[in-house]
Specification:
Helix content is about 50%, strand content about 20%. It contains 5 helices and 6 strands. Strands 1, 2, 3, 4, 5 and 6 form a 6-stranded mixed β-sheet that branches. Keywords: Heme, Iron, Metal-binding, Signal.
């Protein structure tokens, strides 16, 4: 009986997670549409809150800092700045870093 209850509970949980995942793209689109001023990016200039503008988009790279293969210092140097030139100089045209960057997108840089 316990095994059946556990299976039913897990199946129900899986269904809830699936529904949430299906709804998530709409929420992500809303978050991605936010306009963020460079002055707000500049206020997030530390390893504790690291926002970077790259090619007109804004990314929260806080969670990426300890994972960056080139070292945390490479990302920390970009916190609170427009890091377009640095990113393009290091990763321009490379599909892997560009697609990975998208995971951290929080909005567009306001004009």
């Amino acid at each position: 009986m316990r095994r059946r209850l556990a299976t039913t509970t897990l199946t129900g949980l899986a269904a809830v997670l699936l529904l949430a995942a299906c709804a998530a793209p709409e929420a992500a689109e809303e978050a991605d549409g936010r306009d963020i001023a460079l002055s707000e990016v500049e206020q997030n200039a530390s390893a504790e809150s690291c926002w970077v503008a790259i090619d007109g988009d804004v990314y929260d790279l806080t969670e990426w800092i300890p994972q960056h293969p080139g070292g945390a210092d490479r990302i920390e140097a970009l916190c609170g700045t427009d890091g377009t030139a640095q990113f393009e100089g290091q990763h321009g045209g490379q599909g892997g870093p560009e697609s990975q960057l998208e995971e951290f997108r929080i909005g567009e840089l306001a004009d």
